[in-house]
Amino acid sequence: MEVLRVLEELGIGFVPFSPLGKGFLTGQIKEDTKFDSTDFRNSVPRFSAENRKANQALVDLIGRFAAEKKVTPAQVALAWLLAQKPWIVPIPGTTKPHRLRENCGAVAVEIRPEELRTLEIMAAKIPVQGERYPEHLQKLVGR
User: Fold this and answer.
1) What Rg value do the Cα atoms of the chain yield, rounded?
2) Domain containing 78: what range?
3) 143 in a domain, yes or no?
């Protein structure tokens, strides 16, 4: 979080990379999801079946919150980022027009401060399993 503090001090915006966790935070990827053989996620430790199962608790939390708001998990994940600071601007990638419309709908999702605190407290209790990138890419992405 040191980086975010410095960015704020300097008045620099932040664009989170892969704000939907390479699709995982959408709730569409499950423990038994099979990726195409050319899919990059096959090599990402966080996407092993074991880690997907362990990390499902976070997706379930987001899903419950989304159901209460009558929005999608992807919209909650993006709205959570938008609620952090006005200079944090997630730009999710998609190739599907319906997902673009869904993602744009996140700007209309209101997360009240007390909801934000509750969501963060509950999420902090869920340890995320698996590295974000394969070992051979760790140094390239600063990990």
Assistant:
1) 16
2) 2-138
3) no
Report whether 47 contacts 35 (CB < 8 A): yes
At which residue do the structure tokens 């300097």 appear? Answer: 10
Torsion angle (degrees, nearest 10) of CA 122, 125, 126, 129: 150
Q: How far apart are CA 66 and CA 68, in angstroms?
A: 5
Q: Do the Cβ atoms of 14 and 7 come closer than 8 Å?
A: yes
**Please, which pLDDT band fits residue 142 given cuts at 50, 70 and 90?**
low
CATH of the domain at 47: 3.20.20.100
pTM of the model: 0.89
User: What is the total count of domains within the chain?
Assistant: 1
Crossing angle for the helix pair 113-124 and 49-69, nearest 10 degrees? 160
